[in-house]
TrEMBL record:
Enzyme Commission designation: 3.1.3.27
Top EC group: hydrolase
Any one of the GO CC terms: plasma membrane
Annotated protein name in UniProt: Phosphatidylglycerophosphatase A
Recorded GO MF terms: metal ion binding; phosphatidylglycerophosphatase activity
Residues covered by the YutG/PgpA domain: 20-157
Spans through the membrane: 20-47, 53-71, 136-158
One GO-annotated biological process of the protein: phospholipid catabolic process
Function field: Lipid phosphatase which dephosphorylates phosphatidylglycerophosphate (PGP) to phosphatidylglycerol (PG).
Major localisation: membrane
UniProt keyword list: Cell inner membrane, Cell membrane, Hydrolase, Lipid degradation, Lipid metabolism, Magnesium, Membrane, Metal-binding, Phospholipid degradation, Phospholipid metabolism, Transmembrane, Transmembrane helix
Pfam annotation, one family: PgpA
């Protein structure tokens, strides 16, 4: 089902859940909304990075739980599951990827690229979860797993580089 741009913009910009689910409007990008959503997560990451790891982790878990609700509401308003413009899951996935990673440009760039790789290509079980798990949890969980995969590789790189 195709959704007209006016409806999408209304949900993304006029409903609180849609505004957050669409990453403050970043998910309205005309191409690669997931990449733009991931980029939009970086300023919030910079605010979170200096926090103690326990606070960073707690905020990320809260963002995940909130994301289940936000993504479900936005999907409901749009009448489709996992609209491409819903990017709150990319926010959380990137924050997972960058957990405990040095807050320096090379690590941020590497984490960004790793997360986008796993989010785009969806190796098992990410693709399976993306297809089988529905609702807000389904929208969130594939990006969480992509973030975990990217985080594991990034932590190995941090340890040995």
């Amino acid at each position: 089902m195709s959704i007209d741009r006016k409806t999408t913009q209304h949900v993304a910009l006029k409903t609180p859940s849609g505004f957050l689910a669409f990453g403050f409007g970043s998910g309205l990008a005309p191409f690669a909304p997931g990449t733009f959503g991931t980029l939009a997560a970086i300023p919030l990451y910079w605010l979170m990075a200096p926090l103690p790891w326990t606070v960073y982790l707690a905020l990320t878990v809260i963002a995940f739980i909130l994301g289940i609700y936000l993504c479900e509401r936005a999907s409901h308003h749009l009448g489709v599951h996992d609209h491409g413009g819903i990017v709150w899951d990319e926010f959380v996935g990137l924050w997972i990827t960058l957990f405990l990673v040095p807050n320096e440009w090379p690590w941020l760039l590497t984490g960004f690229l790793l997360f986008r790789f796993f989010d785009i290509f969806k190796p098992f079980p990410i693709k399976w979860l993306d297809k089988k798990v529905k609702g807000g949890f389904g929208i969130m969980i594939d990006d969480v797993i992509a973030g975990v995969f990217a985080w594991i590789i990034l932590m190995i790189l941090v340890r040995f580089v």
